User: Fold this.
Amino acid sequence: MIELTYLGHSSFLARIQNKNVLFDPFISPNPKASKIDPISIGADYILLSHGHEDHVADAESIAKRNNAMIVSNYEIAVWFAQKGVEKYHPMNIGGSKQFDFGRVKSVAAVHSSTLPDGASGGNPGGFVIEHAEGCFYYAGDTALTYDMKLIGEEFKVDFAIMPIGDNFTMGIMDAIKAADWVGTKRIIGMHYDTFPYIAIDQEAAKKAAAEAGKELILLNIGDSITL
Assistant:
């Protein structure tokens, strides 16, 4: 079992094997996450799916304050190293690495990736995390892609953290199909309602998921769930 805390937009803090693993921290610029104090966040690892500001905004400050390791693609990892982040681990699509909390596999995402200063953010991606008690998929920002079937063939996915806000990423119907392909019935929603472009009808999304035999979990910012 892991504890998962929602920090707004696409940012989650997962407690795995007594390590704090932070995903895509976009907190201080997000008015909807105003009750979350980034200074209070303890992280051992920071996993970044791609370079857009709404996924990396707080990564540098949190990494430096906690001496956390940034794990991302080569371009993003090196970009943060040039900003003085001392611990970083570059990966690329298809590669995997064993860390002390579990094994991370970098998987494909269909999106774009530019860092806040205009530098290339390399290829966007997602992560499959295998740990002692299970496995989950963090999709990052992505369209529905047939590559997701490969995840279902290789892993037994307990739950998937997926974008559902549409417009820039999958909407709920594509996320439901993605859940079928990766082989899970449980979707943790992300990348919705932060901006007008990605506003959704939450009850309609939950109903669509339920009718497809899925459980859509939409956490309030700051709330935690044990999975």
The first strand starts at residue 3 and ends at 6. The chain has six helices and 14 strands. The CA atoms of residues 18 and 56 lie 24 Å apart. Residues 3-220 form a domain with the Metallo-beta-lactamase; Chain A fold (CATH 3.60.15.10).
